[in-house]
């Protein structure tokens, strides 16, 4: 039989099944990290995704506009601007052709009238900087009067000998046959002076009106040279302002306003004849030429196009004319640009979005792990509390079992012993005569063994009781208690007792008495062979640090064996001194139940001192 | 005066034999009636069942073991003490148990003494001697206890 401490495996078994019960909880806690991170991450990621989706949507809208509407708008605006300029030019040409001064000069001739006409044209050009030349050609195409804006920006009438024959120029030919009230708007090209393209280039178009004598006789042509630079600049600027680019293409498919200055006006240069919109964007050019409407769009391999035509004949107010020269305002989106508009921002945003999500994920994990750490410690506290509760329940159950056990031990183990002893004695008494002395000694030994086992059982029950009874600490006079115990100990040999007066303690009175009984009983037992047995009870230190001691000058023991001293059934003097080996185990149990410590110092034949503290009284 | 019997309530035959031996060793001549469980004891005392002893003398002393089959000793004690006549009977709990709760219970239910059976038989004989000396000779019981068992 072992001692009555909770058997190790029994004590641990609630621990074990608790651990099993705790495992799912830990798994839950581990899963909890990701759950918590997700709890942070999912809404954040959702918001981020929503924000990015909004951005992408807005951008896609913008691209869509640029793609379609914006391109259309750019060309619409360009055409409105061009037409406005053309209308102004036509109006100005009409005004000059129908002017009274011109009519007077045509009717009457004369230097004065000519002078007046020249002055009037100078004044006109002075007010209208978009024109750099105003001329009057006679019916044969010879310049008869010309005012040019000179290099200094001043309009000046040219001397007679500087006037040229323009009979073969297309603007003369196109205009001379027009009926009264009709106008001619020339193509747009670069100004050429005496066979050389003027540098810096001067984009020029000509407004021309036929001039009639008041009698209705056709007399010549009025020509206004219009500097289109401002118009073109205006178109370019406005297109850029709308987030795009506008080109102006002439009826032959050449760029007047193009993606690059080097491709503009190529028809003017022998070596650039192939640089045309028509050549670069053949499909789009075809679509534009074949369009029935003045406006349209084309999507070709070379890009997205929106175009609007300017019908110069229409702008000049000659709807009846067969030839309908046109300019095309074209807004263009290259495939690369369309693609980059459509994709690369999306790609960039996807990258940013993914990056943001990664950041969020990292942040969520960080927050989650912080959160987790806290909830793990909370869970630990809960676990510990639960474990404590479970342990307490297990302990209570073990205690109950132990009580039932010791109860039945106290009854059932003792009863047969009583029979053994009783009937051994009965045998001895009733039939002793028929036994020889050896047989009677055997009976005696049987009885001794039974009685010894009875003591063992009693001591074990005592140890068990010490372990299981509730502790009720109260203030105790240890001195008084020691004296009571000393009185009760029936020492078979004389002992000189020394008990320190006035030793207080807080302890369970019943258990402390058992402790002193054990220690003093031991001391008495082991001083049996001493010449002058002396036992003292005292203390060192005060208050909670008090160390009590019981010292004797008895048999002592070798400190080598000190480790075995407090184990149940450990006896250092088995043969010489009686005992069950449970007394010190009981003493230690009592001390440890008070939260104290017990130890001994001894040497063989010089006595032993047992020290104990009562610590902080346990609950 | 006829000596009234001693009622020994004991389920263990060894203990029964040893107790009787201890009593006889002390020259106790009273009739010893043995009940081997709580039911038998109550049948005897309250005159019911086959072992009813109506008309016989009430016991001068009851020696009661606690750990009994069927109805245990403490319950026997409780029922006897619940009876007006039974309350006057001297009952000594004679048991192996020294459990605190048995002691407390025994006294709470009104036992007159609580004696733990020693293992050493000579100690038991000595205990029996003292018990009988006290309860059979020294102690005075109410007169009513001389009455015969109710019929």
From TrEMBL, chain A:
Q: What is this protein called?
A: histidine kinase
List residues of the Histidine kinase domain: 408-618
**SMART domains, A to Z:** HATPase_c, HisKA
**Origin organism of this chain?**
Jiella mangrovi
Which Pfam families does the record cross-reference, listed alphabetically? HATPase_c, HisKA, HK_sensor_dom_bact
Subcellular localization is given as: Cell membrane
Q: What keyword terms does UniProt attach to this protein?
A: Cell membrane, Kinase, Membrane, Phosphoprotein, Transferase, Transmembrane, Transmembrane helix
Catalysed conversion reaction? ATP + protein L-histidine = ADP + protein N-phospho-L-histidine
Q: Keyword Zinc on this protein?
A: no
The main location class comes to: membrane
Q: What are the TM regions of this chain, as residue ranges?
A: 33-58
Q: How is it placed in the membrane, per its record?
A: Multi-pass membrane protein
Q: What is its EC number?
A: 2.7.13.3
From TrEMBL, chain B:
What keyword terms does UniProt attach to this protein? Phosphoprotein
Q: Does the keyword Lipid biosynthesis apply?
A: no
Which Gene3D superfamilies does the record cross-reference, listed alphabetically?
3.40.50.2300
What InterPro entries does the database record attribute to this sequence? CheY-like_superfamily (IPR011006), Cyt_P450_CS (IPR017972), Sig_transdc_resp-reg_receiver (IPR001789), TCS_response_regulator (IPR052893)
Superkingdom of the organism of origin: Bacteria
Entries under Pfam families matching the protein: Response_reg (PF00072)
Q: Which residues carry this modification: 4-aspartylphosphate?
A: 65
Which positions fall inside the Response regulatory domain?
A: 5-132
- What is this protein's record name? Response regulator
């Amino acid at each position: 039989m072992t001692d009555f401490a909770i058997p190790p495996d029994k004590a641990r078994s609630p621990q074990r099944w608790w651990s099993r019960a705790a495992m799912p909880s830990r798994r839950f806690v581990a899963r909890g990290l990701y759950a918590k991170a997700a709890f942070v991450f999912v809404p954040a990621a959702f918001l981020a995704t929503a924000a990015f989706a909004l951005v992408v949507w807005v951008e896609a809208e913008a691209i869509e506009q640029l793609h379609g509407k914006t391109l259309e708008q750019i060309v619409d605006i360009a055409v409105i601007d061009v037409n406005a300029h053309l209308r102004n030019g036509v109006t100005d040409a009409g005004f000059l052709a129908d002017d009274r001064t011109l009519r007077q000069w045509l009717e009457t001739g004369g230097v004065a009238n000519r002078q007046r006409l020249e002055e009037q044209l100078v004044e006109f050009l002075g007010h209208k900087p978009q024109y750099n030349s105003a001329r009057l050609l006679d019916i044969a195409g010879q310049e008869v009067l010309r005012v040019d804006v000179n290099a200094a920006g001043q309009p000046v009438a040219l001397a007679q000998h500087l006037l040229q024959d323009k009979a073969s120029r297309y603007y003369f030919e196109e205009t001379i046959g027009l009926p009264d009230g009709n106008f001619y708007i020339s193509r747009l090209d670069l100004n050429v002076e005496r066979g050389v393209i003027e540098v810096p280039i001067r984009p020029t178009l000509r407004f021309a009106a036929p001039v009639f004598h008041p009698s209705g006789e056709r007399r010549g042509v009025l020509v206004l040279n219009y500097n289109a630079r401002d118009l073109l600049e205006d178109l370019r600027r406005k297109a850029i302002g709308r987030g795009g680019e506008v080109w102006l293409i002439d009826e032959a498919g050449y760029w007047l306003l193009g993606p690059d200055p080097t491709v503009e006006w190529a028809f003017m240069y022998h070596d650039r004849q192939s640089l045309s919109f028509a050549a670069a964007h053949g499909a789009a050019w075809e679509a534009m030429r074949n369009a029935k409407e003045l406006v349209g769009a084309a999507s070709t391999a070379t890009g997205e196009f929106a175009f609007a035509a300017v019908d110069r004949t229409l702008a000049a107010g000659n709807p009846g004319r067969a030839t309908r020269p046109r300019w095309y305002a074209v807004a263009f989106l290259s495939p690369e640009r369309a693609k980059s508009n459509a994709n690369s921002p999306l790609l960039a945003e996807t990258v940013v979005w993914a990056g943001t999500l990664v950041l969020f994920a990292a942040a969520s994990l960080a927050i989650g792990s912080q959160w987790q750490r806290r909830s793990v410690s909370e869970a630990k506290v809960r676990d510990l509390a639960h474990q404590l509760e479970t342990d307490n329940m297990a302990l209570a159950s073990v205690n109950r079992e132990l009580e039932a056990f010791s109860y039945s031990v106290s009854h059932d183990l003792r009863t047969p012993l009583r029979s053994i002893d009783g009937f051994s004695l009965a045998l001895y008494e009733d039939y002793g005569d028929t036994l020889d002395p050896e047989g009677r000694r055997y009976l005696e030994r049987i009885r001794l063994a039974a009685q010894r086992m009875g003591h063992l059982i009693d001591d074990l029950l005592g140890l068990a009781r010490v372990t299981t009874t509730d502790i009720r600490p109260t203030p105790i006079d240890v001195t008084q208690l020691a004296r009571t115990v000393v009185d009760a100990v029936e020492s078979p040999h004389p002992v000189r007792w020394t008990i320190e007066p006035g030793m207080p303690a807080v302890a369970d009175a019943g258990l402390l008495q058992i402790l002193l009984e054990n220690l003093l009983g031991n001391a008495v037992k082991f001083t049996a062979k001493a010449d002058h047995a002396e036992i003292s009870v005292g203390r060192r230190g005060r208050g909670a640090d008090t160390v009590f001691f019981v010292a004797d000058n008895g048999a002592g023991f070798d400190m080598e064996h000190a480790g075995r001293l407090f184990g149940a059934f450990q006896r250092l003097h088995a043969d010489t001194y009686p005992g069950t080996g449970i007394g010190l185990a009981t003493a230690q149990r009592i001390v440890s139940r008070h939260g104290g410590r017990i130890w001994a110092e001894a040497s063989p034949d010089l006595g032993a001192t047992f020290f104990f503290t009562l610590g902080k009284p346990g609950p | 005066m006829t000596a009234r019997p001693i009622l020994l309530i004991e389920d263990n035959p060894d203990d029964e034999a040893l107790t009787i031996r201890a009593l006889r060793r002390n020259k106790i001549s009273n009739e010893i009636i043995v009940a081997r469980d709580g039911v038998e004891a109550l049948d005897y005392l309250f005159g019911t069942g086959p072992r009813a002893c109506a008309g016989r003398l009430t016991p001068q002393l009851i020696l009661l073991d606690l750990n009994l089959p069927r109805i245990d000793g403490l319950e026997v004690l409780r029922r006897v003490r619940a009876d007006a006549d039974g309350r006057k009977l001297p009952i000594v709990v004679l048991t192996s148990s020294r459990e605190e709760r048995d002691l407390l219970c025994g006294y709470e239910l009104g036992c007159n003494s609580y004696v733990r059976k020693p293992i050493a038989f000579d100690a038991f004989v000595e205990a029996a001697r003292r018990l009988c000396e006290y309860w059979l000779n020294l102690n005075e019981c109410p007169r009513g206890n001389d009455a015969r068992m109710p019929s």
